[in-house]
Design a protein that fits this description.
With 400 residues, the chain is an alpha+beta fold. It has helices spanning 14-25, 57-64, 66-89, 106-121, 131-136, 162-175, 219-222, 300-313, 361-378, and strands spanning 5-10, 31-34, 48-50, 94-97, 99-103, 127-130, 149-152, 157-160, 179-182, 186-190, 197-201, 204-213, 230-240, 259-262, 267-271, 277-281, 327-335, 341-345, 348-355. Strands 1, 2, 9, 10, 11, 12, 18 and 19 form an 8-stranded mixed β-sheet that branches. Strands 6-7-5-14-15-16-13-17 form an 8-stranded mixed β-sheet, sandwiched between helices. The longest helix has 24 residues, at 66-89. It is globular and about 65 Å long. The two termini are 30 Å apart.
């Protein structure tokens, strides 16, 4: 075997780079980041960011109880704050504003009413805007009749230039004397629960003190016991001209950094600098709603769906010519229980995993890197809920 490396990180996206940077800042010895081929998915992410969780509070509370819903919501808020603070301190384009859930069906309104009640009782910021208040509000004045209410979660929305964020993190890591890079991927890990942990990189075996697996959908290849728990999904988005208010410069919708969703998160977007708009969704038109996809392809019918739904949602928005638009698509990762997987592997604390951020990879990935670094350096991280550790998934069978 070659030299001893205290920490190897598989993956050089925002999660892996965050782990490397925080480890180095905490005084860790040499850290080797195995980048692997191609650009990481987080560098090509659409850039919409939010605090809390992407699913509504009720869904988390029903599945995991209200107390934990509050804990995981606060985890998302801290992730949002930490990511935005780092971005601003490193001259990354980022804008923050409101996080709004646009309610377009009676079923959503019932859920939103329950969610706001639960969130308020749990001390989480949320209010419901409907009826005459909605019609007279600065938000409602730009919305079509399709929107029957708004779940306002305060200043927990935003947009970030994901490519610039990744570039700044990469540049910062490359300047740090404790961090080195290899273009080769981590091929294998051996020595599970043995005295020596051996990581294979480009046919060379390295003794390592720890391995952080932060390689998105390839996580199950290195940690087979998690393969059955991590499900891929495809989504699509595009950037279009704005603004949403027919030229009224006083409208609240003119501010960049507003993040919204509608129709149970099947439609989503944010306002961008210079009056542009990010719009995405339409996964319901894909086979199996995009789940189990092995690649993400742009589909014209989904682009048309995104545009058509937006014209119904925003009353004064001018529908653009779809032939001139550039749509993008990407794969995401959803754990089977809809919670991120962050923490040490059961039975092998030297292997740590961060995966399954369900559309919040920029913020949750950055936070996960910090938490795993703190776990390695101090043995504990109070900010990381224990229920997110991979141990909760140990009863799942290995996926062939």
């Amino acid at each position: 075997m070659s030299n001893q490396i205290p920490v190897v990180i598989a993956g050089a996206g925002i999660t892996g780079l965050s782990a490397a940077l925080h480890l180095a800042d905490m005084g860790a010895g040499p850290v080797l980041v195995a980048r692997g081929p191609g650009d990481p998915s987080s560098a090509r992410a659409p850039g919409m960011i939010t605090g809390g969780q992407r699913d509504n509070f009720t869904r988390v509370a029903i599945a995991h109880q209200t107390d934990f819903a509050r804990i995981i919501w606060e985890f998302g808020d801290r992730a949002f704050d930490r990511t935005v603070a780092w971005a601003r301190s490193h001259d990354v384009n980022v804008a923050t504003g409101r996080r709004l859930r646009l309610i377009v069906t009676p079923e959503e309104l019932k859920e939103a009413t329950e969610a706001v009640d639960l969130m308020t009782s749990a001390g989480v910021t949320a209010r419901l805007i409907q009826g005459d208040e909605l019609k007279s509000s600065s938000w409602g004045a730009c919305l079509g009749s399709r929107v029957i209410a708004i779940q306002d979660e305060g200043d927990r929305g935003g947009w970030i230039d994901a490519g610039m964020m990744h570039l700044r993190m990469l540049e910062t890591a490359q300047k740090h004397p404790s961090i080195s890079f290899t273009e080769l991927p981590v091929d294998d890990v051996d020595g599970y629960a043995n005295e020596d942990l051996v990581v294979t990189i480009g046919n060379k075996r390295h003794a390592a003190a720890a391995l952080i697996v932060a390689c998105h959908l390839s996580t199950g290849d290195l940690v087979p016991s998690l393969k059955a728990a991590l499900v891929s999904s495809a989504d699509q988005w595009l950037t279009v001209p704005g603004p949403l208010d027919s030229g009224n410069r006083l409208s609240a919708w003119n501010r960049s950094g507003i993040a919204w969703s509608a129709f149970h998160n099947h439609e989503w977007g944010s306002t961008l600098p210079r009056g542009r708009l990010l719009m995405g969704g339409g996964r319901i038109l894909r086979k199996w709603a995009g789940f189990e996809a092995t690649e993400a392809e742009v589909e014209e019918r989904i682009t048309n769906y995104i545009i058509d739904q937006a014209t119904k949602t925003f009353a004064h928005w001018n529908k653009p010519d779809t032939s001139s638009l550039r749509a993008q698509a990407g794969l995401d990762c959803h754990p089977c229980d809809e919670l991120p997987v962050i923490g040490p592997m059961y039975g092998e604390g030297r292997i740590l995993v961060a995966a399954g951020f369900m559309g919040q990879g920029i913020t949750l990935g950055f936070q996960a890197g910090y938490c795993l670094a703190k776990l390695l350096m101090t043995g504990a991280c109070q900010e990381l809920p224990r229920r997110l550790w991979p141990e909760r998934l140990r009863s799942l069978p290995d996926k062939e």
